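FW: tagging you since you asked about this chain on Friday. Here's the raw sequence from the shared folder, copied in full. Didn't touch anything.
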Amino acid sequence: MTVQGWRKDLNRTAAFYFSDPQASYAARTGRPDDLGVIGVALFRERPIERQGWFSNERRSHSTRSQDKAEADAAGKAVDRRAAGASAAA
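HL: got it, structure written out here
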């Protein structure tokens, strides 16, 4: 892996560059023993949980069965009404 720099904040990045030890950032900040040390913290990105608003993915099998039974019953009622209307005509 090659790391060419780091993120300072959400809008700025900085690149690594190498200099003489006397001119280093570590020496300028009073930490000459930290010369050549790069500390990192890595975090795994949290997965995005998507809602299944327009799909049946998250609905239980029993809910789907109940919906099907209700739809079948409604369809039969329509069929009975249609049959009654044609018999009366």
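FW: Strands lie at 5-7, 13-15.
HL: agreed, and The chain has two helices and two strands.
FW: great, closing this out.
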